[in-house]
Amino acid sequence: MARVVARLSLPALLMLVQFATASGQTTVGIDKVKLAAEVREQFIHTWHGYEKYAWGHDGLRPLSDSCYDWYGTPFYITAVDGLDTMILMGLKQEADSTRTYIDRHLSFDKDVYVKTFEFNIRLLGGLLSSYQLTGDKRLLELAEDLGMRLLPAFNSPTGMPYEYVNLKTGAVRGRINNPAGIGTYLIEFGALSKLTGKNIFYRTAKNAIVQVYDRRSKIGLVGSSIDVDTGKWLKTNSSIGAGIDSYLEYLLKGWRLFGDRDCERMWKTSIEAVNKYLADTTSSGFWYGSADMNTGRRTSTVFDALAAFFPAELALSGDLPRAEKLEDSCYKMWNLYGIEPDDLNYATMSVVSPKYYLNPEIMESAYYLYEYTHDKKYLLMGKTFLDDLVKYCRAGSGFAELKNVVTKRKMDVMETYFTAETLKYLYLLFAPSSTLDFHKVIFNTEAHPIRRTW
Ligand code: DMJ
To answer: What's the number of domains the chain is made of?
Structure first.
């Protein structure tokens, strides 16, 4: 029955839900308590795999039962990224031992070049949210230390960050960056300023995002690649997907988390242009494609899996009609092969890139939409995502990414955001609302909830 439900179109699903509700039965396929427990079980399976085969390292290789480190020396990225999920799931023993390990062993005093963006969203974001959830001051100390070490990345002529920064020396590399790599700091750096009283973090992150916005075209769009030394665009292709996604997200969330009026203005101008030039309606549904930032001319009808974060942003901004239509389209993308491909040409509904990296965005949007609408169809969507993940991606010691969603061939990688985001959003979708007050937090782009305590 579950598989039949999972493959039904949304209208059919809804009819089924309505029938079940009207006929007084338990709504078909929606037992929130059971589903939350199942997500928790899948998390425990994954975490125990990480503990057994990758403890003390950045990530788990779930097919070979081995581990990987991004830079040859560990920063325990899965541990920091997954800690707040464990806290929210009430996995006290696992959370306590992970936190103690981080407190004692995590050090950023290492002579390595790290990706500024990734260390910010995964590690700084993870440390800050777990600090807020536990009150463990060591986590805030580590966050501040990391924040200080990331600051030199912003010492470019424009104030936009370089792609890499050396955590020990402050040396930088990579002058070619993109809007997401430049404009995804305000939540973490802003919270760090509020929690430490040091305004430099907020100022630096805000300047970087403003620098991108100030270089928008006459029609209000940004491109996909920019030289942070000269401030010149290198690629003028605009979209809401990879490379631009969280720049838009942080305009909106900077406004919501800090009440920042500049962010409000920048978001409103940007979303108007995005809806005017990037939104697209075809026979397959409502989508956002790509267009040239200067002319607005459509350059592609490809939608990527990362762009499925956008229903959540639209919902958060109050635009439920577009949010719901877009999530319906994303659900079609998922159901084409029972797992979403990385890139889809929505004009032909054909796969452009067949990989699946265990991405969370479509679950994130289902969670937001359920919070705003309480429409059970989002629970049914969530159940589909969970069933398919277990069916196609579960491996002996965790979950594996897919090389190809058509053949379902697995790859020996489990990204750290799988425990930070994918399983967290699925869990929160089904968990009692007392688990986390959705309306009191803003999630960073790695699903780390930040509470406005200031
Ligand atoms: C995460 O690392 C972040 O959400 C980022 O903003 C883009 N997407 C990946 C997971 O898909």
So the answer is: 1
